[in-house]
Here is the input.
Amino acid sequence: MSLDLDGPEPLYEQIADLLGARISDGTYQPRRRIPSEAAICDEFDVSRPTARSAVALLVERGLVITVRGKGSFVRSPE
Here is the structure.
């Protein structure tokens, strides 16, 4: 899956969808860190606000939790 720069969906939504798919397929395990904002910026060649918005959307979707000073982690299944 790659980013569609010409599509109607914002980049942060596309990145959140891709990271969400990685969570679903087990690439990112429960209670383990997802890539940092800096790593997301490097991987997808996007700005820090775009990476931050993607992580915020994952939090909103209930897939990850963010711990101040530690990073963002895949939420444990209830």
Summary: The chain has three helices and two strands. The longest helix spans residues 11-24.
